[in-house]
TrEMBL record:
It is an enzyme of class 1 (oxidoreductase). This is Vitamin B12-dependent ribonucleotide reductase. Its EC number is 1.17.4.1. PANTHER family: RIBONUCLEOSIDE-DIPHOSPHATE REDUCTASE, VITAMIN B12-DEPENDENT RIBONUCLEOTIDE REDUCTASE. It catalyses: a 2'-deoxyribonucleoside 5'-diphosphate + [thioredoxin]-disulfide + H2O = a ribonucleoside 5'-diphosphate + [thioredoxin]-dithiol. The lineage of its organism: Bacteria, Bacillati, Bacillota, Clostridia, Lachnospirales. GO terms for molecular function: ribonucleoside-diphosphate reductase activity, thioredoxin disulfide as acceptor. Catalyzes the reduction of ribonucleotides to deoxyribonucleotides. May function to provide a pool of deoxyribonucleotide precursors for DNA repair during oxygen limitation and/or for immediate growth after restoration of oxygen. It comes from the Bacteria. Residues 590-695 form the TSCPD domain. Residues 74-551 form the Ribonucleotide reductase large subunit C-terminal domain.
Length: 763
């Protein structure tokens, strides 16, 4: 089988994702399946049938250790929370760096750190507070590369910590802690105080000095602050901590405690904990789809769950020595967490003729979820019979947990009573953005985001033509029934923006009943969604037993981080219209020059740009270092390449896009954090690109003002040369755009995802 046969000849996007992200140096599809399945023929069959896929780290990394590569199979870790001393704080940073270098994402909780103003016995006399160290952890995340990407980080704090208000406010500054997601651990006593409009005590006792720091706040005011900031900036997320601790297989195990959650919050883990991921494609288990005879294959699902649990345990065993830190190896060996999840739920419901969020869909999800949980627990018990239970397994403690009692049949209980469990944690629902895009299905438990996406192409006449690209499930239905317009789709083709938020939470709630870990999830809401509605959403999520929730409001301020200025431009002007291949435009002396001084990690550099006086197109660039800048030869070479590109007819947007793909420079990042005086960007080429775009925009504004002035005169202005055609790149400034292909991003499962090229922030 070839990858084209696997994904479909027409699925070029899926093939590109597989080739770019998961294929190892030209291996064939069959070789890839052999590598990632580890010789397990049953799981290889499910992969070929597109019924199951391992998580991204396994798909890309499994077996590469045999080639000497230092990689991990785990997507996520939780680092031991730093204790309230400088050594532990920086040890935590070291652990983050090492874990990132192997390809893992991390979660860290800072609730043990002293609040701002606490007395300390050193030269500072009082601490700058727990929040001040978040920039350090964000910096480490920015610096450590992972095969063309950066690490992922989640930072959390307890709602009772005196620094919690500063923590919530932190990311309203779009320049701070840009490499971390943040969440607040919310407890039941706080939520009950919110309901009663009572005061809530923020408190911290510093062990080293015995100092007690307390502050009374109105619970409802603090709750509104969380909701309002999430409404405006899509952060912080809410972690309902009592539900996290109380609804799992270890809730009665006294020696166990959760230390934090992973970057997308679907995996609560102990200190040093790690989890391996895999997802079952539910849409592949529907027989006779789109008909009155459509059925869900429960028996097929149960067998797939059993095989998947076994396969994840094989990967766990194989990957034990590959964890970056000794404490991680020990924690994984002791608790043996795996994370089997789902994708394709929305497609599954559509094939069954059920509308996402409606009562009959919730009932179906309840049945599927119970079947998964019972089958996974039974499979783990059978593995325990063969290979032994996880070392810390106490059978009576496990069997008495509310989660176990609610999710097992009598037959499964007998198995566990006899043999215990091979795994302390079994089910999760992680982001599957890249995987589901590759397969052409919906992600996780999310509804279909949109029935179609608009794409733009430039016609031969230089005008923009927009066309619809239908979501795969919509396209399949329309072809099968000869429908020409999406307006003719049945009512059960609902999308994220058409759902009432309660329906979205109802779906997550019913799945959380059967998931012993957690669910990575985002409720997408329209721009007009109010702060009061956000408070209602959070309260409803708490009442429905969710473990975590966040919202993404269309057009919120977080988009300011994710969009570059170049994506907001409405006009693209290039030099040398009509140039043939290899031709370079000659530059005359009547150019308009502009200059910028840039501050970089090494010092300063000067950027001069020359523009066409009639069109404003970039023609030439000159770069030179200041007295303390970087390599002058590099600057000369870069400026020459920019100039010849511009004079060869390449647009400034394309040039800047290439410069922005240069990655992060450690010295640049360090200076930005410490001295906070660097020019916008993460390295010298990016700073140059931003400066060029800034000068280009300024040039276009000046030309526009000049044209308006000339238009008021009775004599028509005659230009020396024809103005090059302007290719429209209309983009809504209130949308996010993919850094790889420039198409709009969506925010699903707690992660930014591109439906056009498969890029995912969480990959």
């Amino acid at each position: 089988m070839t990858v084209e046969e696997w994904l479909g000849e027409e699925n070029q996007l899926g093939t590109d994702i597989w080739t770019k992200k998961y294929c190892n140096e030209g291996e064939s599809f069959d070789e890839w399946v052999g590598r990632i399945s580890g010789g397990n023929e049953e799981i290889a069959r499910y992969i070929r049938e597109k019924k199951f896929l391992f998580g991204g780290r396994i798909l890309s990394n499994r077996g590469l250790d045999k080639e000497g590569r230092k990689v991990t199979y785990s997507n996520c870790y939780v680092v031991d929370p730093p204790e309230d001393n400088i050594e532990s704080i920086f040890d935590c940073a070291k652990k983050l760096a090492r874990t990132y270098s192997y390809g893992g994402g991390c979660g860290v909780d800072i609730s043990r750190l002293s609040p701002r103003g606490a007395r300390i016995n050193n030269a500072a006399k009082e601490t700058s507070g727990s929040v001040s160290f978040m920039e350090l952890y964000s910096l480490v995340t920015a610096l450590i590369g992972q095969n063309g990407r950066r690490g992922a980080l989640m930072i959390s704090i307890d709602c009772s910590h005196p620094d919690v208000e500063e923590f919530i406010d932190l990311k309203t500054d779009l320049e701070k802690v840009t490499k971390a997601n943040i969440s607040v651990r919310i407890h039941e006593d706080f939520m009950e105080a919110v309901k009663k409009n009572e005061d809530y005590l923020l408190h911290y006792t510093r062990q080293a000095t015995g100092q007690v720091i307390e502050k009374q706040v109105n619970a409802r005011d603090l709750f509104r602050k969380i909701a309002e900031t999430n409404w405006d900036y899509a952060e912080p997320g809410a972690l309902f901590w009592d539900r996290i601790e109380g609804w799992n297989l270890l809730s009665n195990t006294k020696e166990f405690s959760y230390a934090g959650v992973n970057p997308c919050a679907e995996e609560p883990l102990p200190a040093g904990g790690s989890c391996l991921l895999g997802s079952i494609n539910l849409s592949a288990f529907v027989t006779d789809p789109f008909t009155d005879h459509a059925q869900f294959d429960f028996e097929g699902l149960k067998h797939c769950v059993e095989v998947s649990v076994g396969a994840l345990n094989e990967v766990l065993e194989e990957g034990l020595p590959l964890h970056p830190l000794q404490e991680q190896q020990e924690s994984v060996a002791k608790w043996r967490q795996i994370g089997l999840g789902i994708m394709g739920l929305a497609d599954c419901l559509i094939k069954l003729g059920l509308a996402y969020g409606e009562e009959d869909a919730v009932v179906m999800c309840d049945k599927i979820g119970f079947a998964m949980a019972d089958s996974a627990i039974a499979a783990s018990a059978k593995l325990a019979k063969e290979k032994g239970a996880y070392p810390a397994c106490e059978i009576d403690e496990v069997m008495s947990t509310p989660y176990f009692l609610a999710n097992t049949t009598e037959k499964t209980r007998e198995l566990v009573k006899k043999y215990g469990l091979r795994n302390s944690q079994l089910l999760t629902i992680a982001p599957t953005g890249t995987l589901s895009t590759m397969l052409g299905i919906s992600g996780g438990i999310e509804p279909v985001y949109a029935n179609y996406y608009e794409r733009k192409t430039e016609s031969l006449h230089g005008t923009d033509v927009y066309y619809k690209v239908y979501t795969k499930i919509v396209e399949t239905y329309m072809k099968q029934f000869g429908i020409k317009s999406d307006a003719e789709l049945p009512d059960y083709f609902v999308t994220a923006m058409t759902l009432d938020y309660r329906q979205r939470i109802d779906m997550q709630s019913i799945w959380q009943q059967h998931i012993d870990a957690s669910i990575s999830s985002t409720v997408n809401v329209p721009n007009g969604f109010t702060v009061e509605e956000t408070e209602g959403l959070y309260m409803y999520a708490y009442e429905k037993g969710l473990k975590g929730i966040t919202i993404f409001r269309d057009g919120c301020k977080r988009i300011g981080i994710l969009n570059t200025d170049m994506k907001k431009e409405k006009k693209e002007v290039t030099a040398g219209e009509g140039l043939k291949r290899g031709e370079i435009l000659l530059v005359t002396d009547d150019v308009v020059g502009k200059k910028r001084k840039l501050v970089t990690g090494c010092g300063s550099l000067h950027c001069i740009a020359l523009f066409d006086p009639n069109t404003g197109a970039l023609l030439e660039t000159y770069l030179s270092k200041g007295s303390t800048g970087g390599c002058n030869n590099f600057m000369v070479g870069l400026s020459r390449m920019i100039s010849i590109s511009a004079r060869g007819g390449i647009s400034i947007e394309t040039i800047v896009d290439q410069l922005n793909s240069s990655g992060s420079c450690p010295s640049y990042t360090a200076r930005r954090v410490t001295r906070k005086d660097t020019s916008r960007g993460a390295c010298c080429p990016m700073a140059v690109g931003n400066a060029l775009m800034d000068m280009y925009n300024e040039m276009q504004e000046e030309l526009a003002a000049k044209e308006n002035c000339e238009a008021e005169k009775p004599v028509k202005k005659v230009k020396k040369v024809p103005k090059p055609k302007a290719v429209s790149t209309e983009m809504d400034k209130d949308k996010m755009y993919c850094p790889e292909c420039g198409e709009p991003l969506v925010f699903e499962e707690g992660c930014n995802i591109c439906k056009s090229c498969g890029w995912s922030k969480c990959h």
